[in-house]
Specification:
The complex is a heterodimer of chains A (429) and B (254). Chain A has 429 residues and is of the alpha/beta class. In chain A, 46% of the residues lie in helices and 14% in strands. An eight-stranded mixed sheet of chain A has the order 3-4-6-5-7-8-10-11, with helices on both faces. In chain A, strands 1-2 form a two-stranded antiparallel sheet. With 254 residues, chain B is mostly helical. Chain B has twelve helices and three strands, in the order H-E-H-H-H-H-H-H-H-E-E-H-H-H-H. In chain B, helix 4 crosses helix 11. The chains are: A alpha/beta (429), B mainly alpha (254). At the A-B interface, helix 8, helix 10, strand 9, helix 11 and helix 12 of A face strand 1, helix 3 and helix 12 of B.
């Protein structure tokens, strides 16, 4: 109810609802502000009609059976994936979650429902930036290297397929992902063209970054630029946000420490531009804190935890959490990520890595590969100036770009759901 | 009599022992090649500020043990029982049960609103109980909320807080989860008052009280969507602790 009222109020405040044309049909989206679109859940009247529940089961993968998992992660016992299944023969879509998200995050669950409704089996995969993936399924244990992450994902896909192939009838494979998962889909598709295990028929990139480094910089900056009083006030600011989260818990009746939850909690705040931006920044910072801690501990420490320190299932971690909150993704990139990959290849420079970790590094492949499509928004907040034009130019008629929707804000919009549901059947538009 | 007494004493000593032993083991242990982290706590985090993440938690080792116990208890016993309950019961009946339990438990909202001298709340709670018990058919329905009389949650922990008692050390209670010393005392107080002065005393039938306790525990768990270790954060214990503490502060201020 509260959503509806706030949504409606904002809608009236904005006055002139955005009306744009996409794919020949009128596309109506209630928020004109890209930050709002990104943060706010769509009001129910503009959401696609999806089934309440779809047949789904989870299964656990032991990707590296011999890997010793540190005691501090005592609750991690494998990589959990899910299968949404049809009772008849159908094509299967692999879906890769966005940064820090799990196979069952709200966006993933919506995609499972929409794709099930459109007649597909779905295997949902946790993002390589999620702690569980780093601990159980990452070969480098250093997430962010999209080539290596694509290899890890490809390995996981094969294991997942192995686990379910006797239970379902599959007529072909497709691939998609949103946000960072969208970018990874492109690299996995390229890998599959070489290895030819799945022979993906169609691949859809949803709101991918062009350059990983540019996008994480933008997200880091959102926090830094928008804390009232500047970075010196970081701690009291985090405190304020936590207070509001606790308030939200009381109101919503539950607590979940995810980006999606923070987004929902936003509805308790006055809609202010700087606040929205810092909130996106906080959500990103919290998930990068989790990621950096897991990556560091798995490799024996030295970055935000002391090197070669023994942590048990009772070790107090609060200081590491606070250090993590004071570490940006960009810090992680230059201080930890780059040196790690330089150890393996001395000729690597920071600039070179930044260049590699971009869709630009596979531009010729993206240009010539007809099966890859793009779904994006012109006002996506994670893109740098000019990047959307670049994508439009590279993908040409295979790009479907909405004028508004922010970063993944319109993923549950009926037009968008229709678009991706039809895409895999080859009848988009 | 004497034997029970000594059993109790030994149980107390054992628990105290666990407390002390586990209480010491929360620091990371250095290995043979330990070197400090590149990004250190003292350099990066301001040491002169009070951070809400740093909750007073002298029993952390014990608490983490209980947190772990709760994870297993939840996974292998509590949630399966909840799922069984949901499987057997039609959703409509589940909602009636929830309403009935809420209505019975208005007793504690009433006593604590009164103890805090919040007379408007006391009146609202009393009116709710009256309306829901009669028109709502022994509380199976909740017409009072529809008429603008919203539930006023108050417990003895909040009453103590209202009169200035600080939260004391953080405590994770077996099965019940995050709490602190003040709220644990509050919980015991509420339970005793409820048993001896509230609805169980009016009914005066141990079997009925037992059945009510069991069903209300299942119903309560059913209504909390929290699942241990699904947050995707290695700092779930720390974040739960911080948010719980903040939440209680807000509830007391309200």
């Amino acid at each position: 109810m509260r959503h509806r009222i706030i949504g409606l109020a904002l809608f009236m405040l904005i006055g002139l609802p955005a009306l744009a044309m996409a794919g020949g049909k009128p596309y109506f989206y209630p928020y004109v502000n890209p930050l709002e679109a990104t943060v706010m859940e769509q009001p129910p009247y503009s959401q696609a009609d999806l089934p309440d529940r779809v047949p789904t089961r989870t299964f656990k993968l032991k990707v590296f059976p011999d890997r010793q998992i540190p005691k501090v992660f005592w609750y991690e016992k494998g990589l959990v994936c899910s299968l949404t299944y049809q009772k008849k023969k159908a094509p299967l879509v692999f879906v890769i979650a966005g940064t820090g998200a799990r196979y069952n995050s709200p966006k993933m669950v919506n995609m499972q429902k929409a794709l099930y409704q459109a007649g597909y089996h779905v295997i949902s995969l946790t993002s390589p930036t999620h702690m569980q993936f780093i601990i159980n399924a990452s070969s480098t244990m250093t997430p962010g290297h999209v080539y290596k992450d694509a290899k890890d994902l490809y390995r996981v896909m094969q294991l997942a397929w192995d686990k379910v192939k006797d239970d379902i009838e599959v007529s072909g494979f497709h691939l998609t992902g949103y946000s960072l998962g969208g970018m990874q889909s492109a690299f996995v598709a390229k890998l599959d063209d070489e290895k030819k295990i799945f022979n993906f028929k169609r691949v859809l990139l949803i709101n991918p970054p062009v350059s990983l480094y540019n996008s994480v910089n933008i997200l880091d900056q959102m926090l830094v630029d928008n804390i009232p009083g500047g970075l010196d006030n970081f701690d009291s600011w985090i405190d304020t946000v936590m207070g509001k989260l606790a308030e939200a818990e009381e109101d919503m009746g539950y607590l979940e420490l995810s980006g999606d939850y923070i987004y929902k909690a936003y509805k308790r705040f006055p809609p202010r531009e700087d606040f929205l931006a810092s909130l996106v920044g906080v959500a990103f910072r919290m998930s990068s804190t989790n990621m950096i801690f897991a990556a560091d501990v798995m490799k024996g420490g030295g970055y935000i935890t002391p090197k070669d320190v023994r942590m048990s299932n009772s070790t107090s971690l609060v200081k590491f959490m606070l250090v993590g909150e004071h570490t940006s993704f960009t810090d992680y990139f230059t201080e930890h990520f780059v040196p790690f990959f330089q150890q393996k290849d001395a000729s690597l420079t920071e600039e070179k890595l930044i260049d590699i970790l971009s869709l630009r590094s596979i531009e010729p492949y993206l240009r010539r590969t007809g099966k890859i499509g793009l779904l994006h928004n012109e006002d996506d907040i994670i893109l740098q100036q000019g990047e959307i034009d670049y994508l439009e130019e590279v993908f040409g008629t295979r790009a479907n770009i909405y004028s508004i929707g922010g970063h993944c804000g319109n993923m549950n919009h009926p037009d968008v759901v229709d678009f991706y549901s039809n895409f895999f059947a080859g009848q988009e538009g | 009599m004497r034997t029970t007494y000594s059993i109790r004493i030994s149980a107390f000593i054992i628990i105290l022992g666990i407390l002390l032993l586990s209480g010491c083991s929360t620091l990371p242990k250095p290995g043979p090649y330990t070197e400090p982290a590149m990004r250190g706590y003292e350099e990066l985090v301001p040491q002169d500020k009070e951070l809400s993440a740093l909750v007073y938690d002298p029993l952390e080792g014990f608490n983490r043990g209980v947190y772990r116990f709760n994870y297993y208890f939840d996974k292998y016993l509590f949630l399966p029982v909840v799922r069984g309950y949901q499987f057997i019961m039609p959703d409509y009946a589940e909602d009636r049960v929830s309403n009935f339990i809420d209505n019975v438990l208005e007793f504690n909202n009433f006593t604590n609103s009164l103890l805090q001298l919040k007379f408007k709340r006391t009146g609202t709670t009393l009116a709710r109980f009256g309306l829901n018990t009669t028109i709502g058919v022994i509380g199976l329905w909740d017409p009072a909320t529809g008429w603008g009389l919203h539930r006023e949650g108050e417990d003895f922990g909040q009453t103590l807080g209202h009169y200035g008692v600080g939260h004391g050390p953080y405590i994770v209670l077996p099965i019940l989860g995050p709490s602190n010393l003040r709220d644990t005392v509050g919980f015991v107080g509420d339970t005793l008052a409820f048993r001896n002065l509230g609805p169980p005393a009016w009914v005066d039938d141990d079997d009925v009280t037992l059945a009510f306790t069991m069903v209300s525990s299942i119903d309560r768990r059913k209504r909390i969507p929290f699942r241990y270790y699904s947050s995707g954060s290695p700092f779930e214990y720390e974040q739960t602790r911080m948010l719980h503490t903040k939440k209680r502060e807000l509830e007391i201020a309200d």
